[in-house]
Specification:
Residues 1-88 form the GST N-terminal domain. With 214 residues, the protein is of the alpha+beta class. It has 2 domains: 4-87, Glutaredoxin; 92-203, Glutathione S-transferase Yfyf (Class Pi), Chain A, domain 2 (Up-down Bundle). It is built from 8 helices and 4 strands, in the order E-H-E-H-E-E-H-H-H-H-H-H.
Length: 214
Protein backbone atom coordinates (compact mmCIF):
# COMPACT_ATOMS: atom_id res chain seq x y z
CA UNK A 1 0.00 0.00 0.00
CA UNK A 2 1.49 3.34 -1.07
CA UNK A 3 1.68 5.75 1.87
CA UNK A 4 -1.01 8.37 2.27
CA UNK A 5 0.37 11.90 2.11
CA UNK A 6 -0.83 13.90 5.10
CA UNK A 7 -0.61 17.69 5.04
CA UNK A 8 -1.37 19.04 8.47
CA UNK A 9 -0.49 21.00 11.60
CA UNK A 10 -1.28 19.99 15.22
CA UNK A 11 -4.43 22.07 15.71
CA UNK A 12 -7.51 20.19 16.98
CA UNK A 13 -8.61 19.54 13.40
CA UNK A 14 -5.12 18.53 12.34
CA UNK A 15 -4.63 16.20 15.29
CA UNK A 16 -7.67 14.15 14.28
CA UNK A 17 -5.89 12.79 11.23
CA UNK A 18 -2.65 12.00 13.02
CA UNK A 19 -4.68 10.01 15.54
CA UNK A 20 -6.76 8.22 12.91
CA UNK A 21 -3.76 7.20 10.83
CA UNK A 22 -1.94 5.93 13.91
CA UNK A 23 -5.02 4.01 15.06
CA UNK A 24 -5.50 2.46 11.63
CA UNK A 25 -1.85 1.52 11.28
CA UNK A 26 -1.68 2.31 7.57
CA UNK A 27 1.43 3.81 5.97
CA UNK A 28 1.52 7.58 5.74
CA UNK A 29 3.99 10.39 5.24
CA UNK A 30 3.41 13.57 7.27
CA UNK A 31 4.09 16.99 5.80
CA UNK A 32 4.08 19.99 8.13
CA UNK A 33 1.91 22.82 6.85
CA UNK A 34 2.83 25.59 9.25
CA UNK A 35 -0.22 27.82 9.23
CA UNK A 36 1.60 30.35 11.39
CA UNK A 37 4.03 30.90 8.50
CA UNK A 38 1.42 30.82 5.74
CA UNK A 39 2.34 27.42 4.32
CA UNK A 40 -1.36 26.82 3.69
CA UNK A 41 -1.43 29.74 1.21
CA UNK A 42 1.17 28.30 -1.13
CA UNK A 43 0.20 27.18 -4.66
CA UNK A 44 1.39 23.65 -3.84
CA UNK A 45 -0.97 23.25 -0.88
CA UNK A 46 -3.81 25.11 -2.60
CA UNK A 47 -3.65 22.49 -5.35
CA UNK A 48 -4.46 19.89 -2.67
CA UNK A 49 -7.02 22.00 -0.81
CA UNK A 50 -8.49 25.01 -2.63
CA UNK A 51 -9.91 26.21 0.70
CA UNK A 52 -6.34 26.56 2.06
CA UNK A 53 -7.12 24.93 5.39
CA UNK A 54 -5.47 21.99 7.11
CA UNK A 55 -5.69 19.04 7.15
CA UNK A 56 -5.72 17.47 3.72
CA UNK A 57 -4.54 14.17 2.31
CA UNK A 58 -3.53 12.68 -0.99
CA UNK A 59 -4.10 8.94 -1.27
CA UNK A 60 -2.03 7.53 -4.17
CA UNK A 61 -4.29 4.47 -4.15
CA UNK A 62 -7.75 5.99 -4.43
CA UNK A 63 -11.05 4.16 -4.97
CA UNK A 64 -10.32 3.62 -8.67
CA UNK A 65 -6.64 2.91 -8.12
CA UNK A 66 -5.76 6.49 -9.00
CA UNK A 67 -4.64 9.29 -6.63
CA UNK A 68 -7.35 11.20 -4.80
CA UNK A 69 -7.03 14.34 -2.69
CA UNK A 70 -9.47 15.02 0.14
CA UNK A 71 -9.87 17.99 2.45
CA UNK A 72 -12.07 18.70 5.51
CA UNK A 73 -11.18 16.61 8.54
CA UNK A 74 -14.60 14.98 8.86
CA UNK A 75 -14.59 13.89 5.23
CA UNK A 76 -11.07 12.48 5.61
CA UNK A 77 -12.07 10.53 8.73
CA UNK A 78 -14.99 8.98 6.88
CA UNK A 79 -12.82 8.20 3.88
CA UNK A 80 -10.15 6.46 5.95
CA UNK A 81 -12.74 4.52 7.95
CA UNK A 82 -14.46 3.26 4.80
CA UNK A 83 -11.15 2.54 3.06
CA UNK A 84 -9.94 0.34 5.91
CA UNK A 85 -13.22 -0.98 7.29
CA UNK A 86 -12.22 0.21 10.75
CA UNK A 87 -13.38 2.82 13.31
CA UNK A 88 -16.90 2.74 11.85
CA UNK A 89 -19.54 0.22 12.99
CA UNK A 90 -20.77 -2.40 10.56
CA UNK A 91 -24.33 -2.12 11.87
CA UNK A 92 -26.10 0.50 9.68
CA UNK A 93 -27.92 2.18 12.58
CA UNK A 94 -24.76 2.50 14.63
CA UNK A 95 -22.81 3.64 11.57
CA UNK A 96 -25.19 6.50 10.94
CA UNK A 97 -25.18 7.44 14.60
CA UNK A 98 -21.41 7.80 14.37
CA UNK A 99 -21.80 9.93 11.24
CA UNK A 100 -24.32 12.11 13.11
CA UNK A 101 -21.82 12.82 15.87
CA UNK A 102 -19.01 13.52 13.43
CA UNK A 103 -21.24 16.09 11.71
CA UNK A 104 -22.27 17.46 15.12
CA UNK A 105 -18.62 18.11 15.88
CA UNK A 106 -17.94 19.64 12.47
CA UNK A 107 -21.00 21.89 12.43
CA UNK A 108 -21.39 22.76 16.11
CA UNK A 109 -18.73 21.79 18.60
CA UNK A 110 -15.66 22.71 16.57
CA UNK A 111 -16.81 26.11 15.30
CA UNK A 112 -18.21 27.07 18.71
CA UNK A 113 -15.12 26.05 20.66
CA UNK A 114 -12.94 27.73 18.05
CA UNK A 115 -14.81 31.01 18.36
CA UNK A 116 -14.75 30.73 22.14
CA UNK A 117 -10.99 30.23 22.10
CA UNK A 118 -10.49 33.19 19.79
CA UNK A 119 -12.42 35.66 21.91
CA UNK A 120 -11.32 34.21 25.26
CA UNK A 121 -7.60 33.88 24.54
CA UNK A 122 -6.54 35.66 21.38
CA UNK A 123 -8.73 38.68 20.62
CA UNK A 124 -6.71 41.89 21.08
CA UNK A 125 -9.72 43.46 22.77
CA UNK A 126 -11.85 41.56 25.26
CA UNK A 127 -15.42 41.65 24.01
CA UNK A 128 -17.55 40.46 26.90
CA UNK A 129 -20.62 39.88 24.76
CA UNK A 130 -18.71 37.47 22.48
CA UNK A 131 -17.03 35.69 25.39
CA UNK A 132 -20.36 35.27 27.18
CA UNK A 133 -22.13 34.11 24.01
CA UNK A 134 -19.61 31.39 23.23
CA UNK A 135 -19.19 30.43 26.88
CA UNK A 136 -22.91 29.69 27.16
CA UNK A 137 -22.98 27.69 23.93
CA UNK A 138 -19.77 25.80 24.77
CA UNK A 139 -21.24 24.73 28.11
CA UNK A 140 -24.46 23.67 26.40
CA UNK A 141 -22.55 21.50 23.95
CA UNK A 142 -20.48 19.97 26.73
CA UNK A 143 -23.77 19.13 28.42
CA UNK A 144 -25.06 17.45 25.26
CA UNK A 145 -21.90 15.36 25.05
CA UNK A 146 -21.99 14.55 28.75
CA UNK A 147 -25.54 13.25 28.40
CA UNK A 148 -24.63 11.17 25.35
CA UNK A 149 -21.76 9.56 27.25
CA UNK A 150 -23.93 8.57 30.19
CA UNK A 151 -23.59 4.81 30.62
CA UNK A 152 -21.25 4.49 27.63
CA UNK A 153 -17.50 4.13 27.30
CA UNK A 154 -17.49 6.02 24.00
CA UNK A 155 -19.66 8.46 22.10
CA UNK A 156 -21.63 5.74 20.34
CA UNK A 157 -22.10 2.83 22.72
CA UNK A 158 -18.98 0.96 23.75
CA UNK A 159 -17.14 1.02 20.42
CA UNK A 160 -14.31 3.47 19.82
CA UNK A 161 -14.92 5.19 16.48
CA UNK A 162 -14.10 8.22 14.36
CA UNK A 163 -16.74 10.10 16.39
CA UNK A 164 -14.47 9.92 19.45
CA UNK A 165 -11.48 11.02 17.39
CA UNK A 166 -13.38 13.93 15.87
CA UNK A 167 -14.59 15.24 19.21
CA UNK A 168 -11.79 14.58 21.71
CA UNK A 169 -9.21 16.97 20.27
CA UNK A 170 -11.64 19.87 20.52
CA UNK A 171 -12.64 18.98 24.08
CA UNK A 172 -9.01 18.72 25.12
CA UNK A 173 -8.08 22.13 23.70
CA UNK A 174 -10.40 23.80 26.24
CA UNK A 175 -8.34 22.71 29.23
CA UNK A 176 -5.06 22.60 27.31
CA UNK A 177 -4.17 25.35 24.87
CA UNK A 178 -7.07 27.65 25.79
CA UNK A 179 -6.56 27.12 29.55
CA UNK A 180 -10.27 27.66 30.05
CA UNK A 181 -11.17 24.62 32.14
CA UNK A 182 -12.16 26.64 35.20
CA UNK A 183 -13.97 29.29 33.16
CA UNK A 184 -16.11 26.65 31.47
CA UNK A 185 -16.42 24.45 34.59
CA UNK A 186 -15.26 21.48 32.51
CA UNK A 187 -14.74 19.34 35.63
CA UNK A 188 -18.50 19.40 36.24
CA UNK A 189 -19.05 17.36 33.08
CA UNK A 190 -17.84 14.17 34.68
CA UNK A 191 -18.73 11.80 31.85
CA UNK A 192 -16.80 13.98 29.43
CA UNK A 193 -13.78 14.14 31.72
CA UNK A 194 -13.65 10.36 32.19
CA UNK A 195 -14.17 9.73 28.49
CA UNK A 196 -11.33 12.13 27.61
CA UNK A 197 -9.01 10.28 30.00
CA UNK A 198 -10.04 6.97 28.48
CA UNK A 199 -9.40 8.11 24.92
CA UNK A 200 -6.14 9.90 25.75
CA UNK A 201 -4.77 6.74 27.38
CA UNK A 202 -4.58 5.16 23.94
CA UNK A 203 -0.98 5.15 22.59
CA UNK A 204 -2.17 6.04 19.08
CA UNK A 205 -3.92 9.13 20.43
CA UNK A 206 -0.84 10.25 22.30
CA UNK A 207 1.38 9.80 19.25
CA UNK A 208 -1.18 11.09 16.78
CA UNK A 209 -1.46 14.43 18.54
CA UNK A 210 2.23 15.12 17.84
CA UNK A 211 2.13 14.35 14.12
CA UNK A 212 3.12 17.30 11.90
CA UNK A 213 4.47 19.23 14.85
CA UNK A 214 7.08 21.74 13.57
Amino acid sequence: MAPIQLYSFPTPNGQKLGIALEELGIPYEPHVINIMKGDNKTPEFTAVNPNQKIPAIVDPDGPDGKPISIFESGAILLYLAEKTGKLLPKDPREKWEVVEWVFWQMAGLGPTFGQFGHFYKFAPQKIEYAIDRYTVESKRLLGVLDKQLEGHDYVVGNEYTIADIAIVTWVDVLTGFYQAGDHLSVSEFKNVVEWSKRVNARPAVQKGKTVCRP
